[in-house]
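Cont'd.
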Amino acid sequence: MTDRPGRPDRPEADDSDRFGPSTDGGERTDEPAVSRTHEGGPAGSEPDVLSGRSRRLVSLIGRYRVPIGLIVLVLFLRPLVSQPWALGFGRIAATMLIWMLFVASFNLLFGFTGLLSFGHAMFFGFGTYGVAIAVSRFSLPFVAGAVVGITFASAFGYLLGRLIVNKGEIYFAMLTLAVAQAVYFVANRNPYELTGGSNGITGTVPPWIETYRGETTVVLGGLSVDWYWAVAAVFLICALGLWQVLRSPFGRSLIAIRENEALARAMGVDTERYKIASFTMSGALAAVAGALLAISDQGAALETLGVLTSGDAVLMAVLGGVNYFFGPLAGVFVWLFAEDYLTDFEVLYFPLREFVLVSVDLSGVLEYWRFLLGGLFVVIVLLSPKDGVWGFLRGLVTRVARVGERLGGGSRER
Amino acid sequence: MVRVSDDSDTEGVDAEAAGTDAAIGTTTTTGTEAATSGTAASATRPTSDDSPREAAVGTVGLTRKFGEITAVDDVSLTVPRGELRAVIGPNGAGKTTLFNTVTGALSPTAGSVWLAGEEITDVPQARRPHLGLARSFQGNELFTDRTVLENVRIVVQTTQQGPFRLDLFRDAGPVGRERATELIERVGLAAELDSVARNLSHGDQRRLGIAMALATDPDVLLLDEPTSGMSPGATARTADLIEDIQETLGLTVLLIEHDVEVVLSISDRITVLDRGAVVATGPPEVVRDDPAVQDAYLGGMRENE
């Protein structure tokens, strides 16, 4: 898992995507890295021309490290999970991207605005049910269903936000939970035969989707694209949009509210309106992920709206690290990877499958993968609740880089 | 301990103490008139014929209760433009509650708040900095995980953009950065530009708080114990800083301060609060010698010991 895509392309380990401490103006954040590489060699030994050009390159990469990381992630996620030593099949990659988008939308609210929603599944579900109902019940095109679902989620988020956003942390969490449960029960009641009750909606396949031997393909005109790439395109657009929102003046105001809401208000930030806007955007983005899920799952399942889905989003975000842009994405990866990997895991051969000294039958134990992840979650919360897996990896890379630098500097001095 | 909450008593005390100084007489009358008319009709401006609409910031019969406790009791203040007014009083006198009510963090139980001749009692808190009313906090309220630059920059950005703006399509980094840097240099934190706020020393954090308050481009600045917890040297430097800022920017400053020397040396006038009510208002030397003030203030101090 240390080989996660998205990391190798970051020249400078600290603060690449951290919207917490010391992330600041784009240009300035890069300077520590630049000065460090500079200090690495003894003064004057390297030609200044090269250092000037490489400095600009490092600064450029530094500024756009999140987009670069996202592209790398999208390119390498599927090949990575398809490896025989990993999961051995690529289909889960699309699901991972969808969940990454969903949990990232949740983290806009939790990690970057400081609002804990325990009912984010409802927005996810609005997207899924929007598409499923439109396509299966009314034979409308997918896009129409997606637009309806996303619009509904936005409007719902806006109105609900106006009602509850200023009720205080715990009450906000409780109220989102309560409303999400209400939505769940409504869907379960199957009003006007729309939602299909506990069976959900199945067989939602728009005409441009072709499925053959478990491989889903998008056929538009003469063009045939693997479903993964369609999801990847939407994911990339939304994730880049989210990144832009977080670096914009608007996003900085959200972060200020997260850091100290009373102070933000005293300094003239209309915290309520910012929080409502954040809630609305977060809901809309979750609905986009939901709309994709309707195609991936070929329908809408009631448990998508359930409290477990909301809870998983919270757990995945915290597991990954809520203070980082890539935190929730890492959390989803670890979670879904573990779910698949551990449930299929039967016998541990040590040290190698070909050269066994000890073999342990773990199939009975690893069925409790949720329990194991729960344990990991507890450890992370106890150690550093905001850093998560991603923060841990970054800390590791920083330390390794520092050691490497010291060694490199020393050898050059000789 | 004498508790003076009645306006006529306040007048008596002040007139007695004033004697030579005509200015105090005027103030006291101002306060009294405003307060009496304030109870009659709450929408009266906190000014008298002597300073019509000139008050930079004022309150009329301002009262804030927490259940049975009256934290601010019928306070009428008139602070003319450009004045450095200290608010002193024993612990629990209601100084911070007065600030919170003026800035809108708390809504008053009764009475009204005025800024530059306009009533702002019902203006939401987040709007008030945009009208020129800024404050610093007693505790070190900062965006603790952010850099010094970002702490000030976000306030400059807010001041430029107003309470809310959906400004999504550009990088926030350069927005307000120059102005923020300038303000940070002004309060003497240039070396700490890129430090994370939580790692600053206590005194530097207080200074950062002042820079953030200044970043709102205030006309009226409320400073809540800016020197608390500082060494004597740092206290003196901060006092100089406040005086310098007030003079060069022509600010009206309302200052809560415990350090008697600071209060006596930099304030133009002093308002003494005790148990939520104004005991006296006047120039430092007069207030210092006021027996009622000494009684209230020192009496309160002694009780605490």
